[in-house]
Amino acid sequence: MNKLLLVLTGPSGVGKTTLCTQFLKTYPNAKRVVTSTTRPPRYMERYGEDYWFETDESFKQKLEAHEFLEHAQVYQYHYGVSLKAITGYNDRDLIICLDVQGAQTFRTTYHEKNLGHRLVIVFVTPPTLEELEKRIKHRGTDNERTIRTRLETAKKEQSVASSFDYCLYSGTQDQDFLNLQHIYEAEKMRS
After folding, report:
1. Total domains, the chain
2. How far apart are CA 176 and CA 16, in angstroms?
């Protein structure tokens, strides 16, 4: 059976990481692709589990060594997906959370390299921008200026939602996960 690379994308704070965590608990044979970032860790984030936290210099060295399948600057930080993180797991389904800019670049680069997994990109969209603002504030990690920037970016990101394979309209965590399961199971049965 063809292995999937499931990409969750959407505005910051929409619930991608929560969906990813639930997915891995439900499908323990799947593997999360951990991305690299120069962003400092948030409360409770762990090195190698949530992100590979890099210095600007170490990220630059990896970039120059062509170790990233995709990389982007989002807000003031750099993010990248290691080629090794994808190619090292051809025997398992993979899941990854990417921002919208990263998902767009990733799709192009991934298809150019023909890496083996069938790529499925799910855009998670908030029910409203007001609800997204509540979710971002609930995280408690961003100041008011950063929240405003994230919301302005989310407005722009909404305009490209239909360019991805699926659009998951977010409701409750349980509903969102049920919808993600339906997408995953349908894709696993695709011939």
Report:
1. 1
2. 10
Which residue numbers in the chain have pLDDT < 70? 1
Are the beta carbons of 86 and 80 closer than 8 angstroms? no
**Rounded to whole angstroms, how far apart are CA atoms 38 and 57?**
9
Question: How far is it, in rounded angstroms, from Cα 125 to Cα 157?
Answer: 9
Cα dihedral 78, 50, 163, 168 sign: negative
What range defines the domain where residue 162 resides? Answer: 4-189
DSSP 48: T
- pTM tops 0.85: yes
Query: What's the pLDDT tens digit per position in 117-162?
Result: 899 999 999 999 999 999 899 888 888 998 998 899 999 999 999 9
Per-residue CA distances from 145 to 29, 137, 151 (Å)? 40, 12, 10
Q: Quick one: tokens of 133?
A: 């603002």
The pLDDT of residue 159 is 92
Beta-sheet pairing, 94-97 with 4-9: parallel
Pairing of β 4-9 and β 36-37: unpaired
Residue linked to tokens 């998902």: 103
CATH, residue 19: 3.40.50.300
Tokens 């929560």 belong to residue: 18
pLDDT of residue 177: 98
Place of tokens 């696993």: 188
